[in-house]
Specification:
374 residues, alpha/beta, Rossmann fold, 2 domains, seven-stranded parallel beta sheet, six-stranded parallel beta sheet, 16 helices, 13 strands, UDP_GlcNAc_Epimerase_2_dom, WecB-like, UDP-N-acetylglucosamine 2-epimerase (non-hydrolyzing), isomerase
């Protein structure tokens, strides 16, 4: 019996985290020949995840350049993937979410009339420039895809509203929950020793990430100034911020927060360390998309320092609150969760809308059941 040849393509740390459990599920299935190609749109942060989940790519395009532009990424992926597709001739490629790797790999497959499966399909903010360029990457990938694996009912509806045939959309939950449940441990000992010295019991520890392109510049300065004000006013609060490797982010972070007592600026963490940091933290402040899905599984309130979210299910469920990038509002909403137990418990105890840890299993089944009818 001929096996289904599936080429999985990803290039960034968030993609790798979310695709890792799916890669493992594909490898275990005796009806599938699994091939993995990484673009290394992010190099170091991608490699961390590959080590944790013991994934050895069959192809590594290694496209990352210092201060790379979106055009650099697009051209590098398009040319590199072309060679892989010519050699392997897969039955379908799987891409994830909203990165430039995702859109460009889907485009390359379309050029060769190879089917595309889009994992984490259907997320929308309705603003083409927020998040940038992710919102447009999602929509363009949806146009090119043959199978759409939507995490939630809301995502399914978005795709239907854009004219996607419902028979090609599958509600699966989000694979990030699969990954998260594999690595969080109750008595975890951090690889980064500085984290083992943090008093998670007696301090209110805020885990923070901030890196998005649309926040760089004045919005990011205001976010950091808000954090500075919160910490200065309350000695019980400490902030752990693994600073993104982007030079633009690091310059602002170290300038505004570098000498602030109670703020720990550390290097990017491996996924195991970061997942367990979230689990031990009191709350989370982020401009990330993926953390809006992970934190609810751990019962952690999350404040999103963006003006929109493509994950309205989490807002509706009460686990996520979008607070924008205005300094005063960030300070107000953070203090509310730090000081008001009722507010905190309402968010911490809300129900996670993103799944049960079996998303990868559902995607594999949908592939095998439906590839023949496309």
């Amino acid at each position: 019996m001929k096996k289904l040849k599936v080429l999985t393509v990803f290039g960034t740390r968030p993609e790798a985290i979310k695709m890792a459990p799916l890669v493992k599920a594909l490898e275990k299935n005796d009806q599938i020949q699994s091939i993995v190609c990484v673009t290394a749109q992010h190099r170091e942060m991608l490699d961390m995840v590959l080590r944790i989940f013991e994934i050895k790519p069959d192809y590594d395009l290694n496209i990352m350049k210092n201060r790379q532009s979106l055009s650099d990424i697009t051209v590098g992926v398009l040319k590199g993937i072309e060679e892989v597709l010519n050699k392997e001739e897969p039955d379908i490629i799987l891409v994830h979410g909203d990165t430039s790797t995702t859109f460009t790999a889907a485009l390359a497959a379309f050029y060769q009339k190879i089917k595309v499966g889009h994992v984490e399909a259907g997320l929308r903010t309705g603003n083409m420039y927020s998040p940038y360029p992710e919102e447009i990457n999602r929509k363009l990938t949806a146009t090119l895809a043959n199978l759409h694996f939507a995490p939630t009912e809301e995502n399914y509806k978005n795709l239907i509203n854009e004219g996607i045939d419902g028979k090609n959309i599958f509600i699966t939950g989000n694979t990030v929950i699969d990954a998260l449940l594999q690595v969080v441990k109750p008595n975890y000992f951090f690889k980064v020793d500085e984290l083992n010295k943090i008093d998670f019991v007696n301090k209110k520890v805020i885990a923070m990430t901030c890196h998005r392109r649309e926040n760089q510049g004045k919005p990011m300065e205001d976010i950091f100034e808000a954090i500075k004000e919160v910490v200065a006013a309350d000695e019980s609060v400490e902030v752990i911020y693994p600073v993104h490797l982007s030079p633009a982010v690091r310059e602002i972070a170290f300038r505004v927060l570098g000498d602030v007592k109670g703020v720990h600026l550390i290097e990017p963490l491996e996924y195991e360390d970061f997942a367990n940091l979230m689990n031990k933290a009191y709350m989370i402040i982020t401009d990330s998309g993926g953390l809006q899905e992970e934190a609810p599984s751990l019962g952690k309130p999350i404040l999103v320092v963006r003006t929109e979210t493509e994950r309205p299910e989490a807002v509706a469920a009460g686990t996520v609150r979008v607070v924008g990038v205005n300094k005063e509002n960030i300070v107000k909403e953070t203090r509310k969760l730090l000081q008001d137990n009722h507010e905190y418990n309402q968010m911490a105890n809300a129900i996670n809308p993103y799944g049960d840890g079996r998303s990868s299993e559902r995607i594999v089944k949908a592939l095998l059941d439906n590839i023949g009818i496309l």
